[in-house]
Amino acid sequence: MRVKSVEQVLSSAEGGDGHGRLRRDQGWFDLVVTGVGMVLGTGIFVFTGQVARQMAGPAVAVSFVLAAVVCGCAALCYAELASALPVAGSAYTFTYATLGELAAWVIGWALMLELTLSACVVAVGWSGYLQSLLDSAGIHLPTAVSGGDGSFVNLPAMLLIVLLVGVLIRGGTLSKGATQVLVAIKAAVVLFVIVVGSFFVKASHYSPFVPPSAPAETASGVHTPLLQAFLPGTPSAFGVTGVITAAAMVFVAYIGFDVVATSAEETRRPQRDLPIGLLGSLLIVTVLYVAVSLVLTGMQSYSRLSVEAPVAEAFKAVGHPMVGAVISVGVVVGLVTVCLVSIRGQSRVLLAMSRDRLLPAVFAAVHPRYATPHRSLLALGVVMALLSGFVDIGVLADLVNIGTLFAFVLVSVGVIVLRRTRPDLPRPFRVPLVPLLPGISFAACLYLMVNLSLLTWLTFAIWLAAGLALYAAYGRRRSVFAGRSASPAPSAPGAPTEPPAAAVGGPVGAAAGRES
After folding, report:
1. What is the CATH number of the domain that holds 425?
2. Tens digit of each residue's pLDDT (9 = 90 or more) over 440-493
3. For the chain, what is the domain count?
4. Which whole-number Å values give the CA distances from 472 to 357, 469, 476, 478, in the listed order?
5. Which residues cross the membrane (predicted)?
6. 324, 332 in Cβ contact below 8 A?
């Protein structure tokens, strides 16, 4: 329960721990681009058709709005904490300053799982899309090298990871420029689909806008959702219930905006720019998602939409099959963006945990010339390249969702705790209606977590158990608090800049900073 004081958190961002500072070269526009690049996934081209056909009909547009409202509550919580604590690490740092070291370790460990798997899954998917695109153009490149026993090496995925790590280590203009160009291409493809598709919309396809309720298909075995395993019953598709259930399904399309908060320490004016980046990217993506869903369900009846490639098939149905090639280009470019942002966010979480010595301090080093966490990026590059090259990680994709939702839950709690423990802390951005909105975020994210499969929960539990064992064997004894006694945190933000050895700021009072 050792809690890191706000003053100590802020000191580490200014190089007070001796590991160097990250360069503050990010503005609000860069943060919005980062958020859109991570959230605006190519899954929108698949998700819309799948959910519209199986769960909500044309009302899938309403489902996207409902999911955005819930996600917006979590974004508000991130905006308050990120503007008050503009330090690398995102949810890990926020949790350390509110709920304590053990909770911070758990959330940091979960974020490492989320961002690492996200980058690897995307790299593998990018490799497949690239080969498909090249095949359609008559170009055949070797995508794998046989290992003799049926195994293979996914060379394009590994090379993508290596290339992006190099770009991120170089940082600065190269990294920002690459991100902006890739996001611009991806957004242009989405806008192309919206504008061209709108000419083929028929009003009759919107009737009925909310189809009558009907029984939905259910999963079985380890793929059964946790909630359904304990509350058996037949879920409903379509109708009002189907629209709400669809909102829970499309929520995962918004996951990723929290990566914006990992750039807090590199933002020139974090108190202003971070809330704009978080909420602005969420708003832009919501508008695009709703527009795509309305165009798609207007082009073709929801009952005839393809589940695998709804946009390409819808354009085929109206006599324009070549649009599929444009979409394929957008998919290839878009996946590179998601992979780039995931690796960048993961390196900042690893940097923050290493600064606190919960992981080896060697990863906390900042490059003297480029001002980037080069050692963290190199280590992650090796791990991610090996995973994407040799491991079939498709079955682990759902772990990305549960890790993200777990972070949302703790950040929502953190807002309420920090309001009580540090009411004097300057908050350039404040969540309205506390504790109502953080409570809504907490409950909604928890509900989405229990709707994930038993297999996902079991795998996540194994990962957390491994993390707790590592913390007990290494982090607890080597953290910045190890062997030190707590002293009261300064009562005002204007207190001396030299932080105390450990600070009391958590919910357990004077005992929060003491050794167990």
Report:
1. 1.20.1740.10
2. 999 988 888 887 888 888 888 998 999 999 999 998 888 877 765 433 333 333
3. 1
4. 13, 5, 6, 10
5. 28-47, 59-81, 102-130, 150-169, 181-201, 236-257, 278-302, 322-343, 377-396, 402-419, 431-449, 455-474
6. no
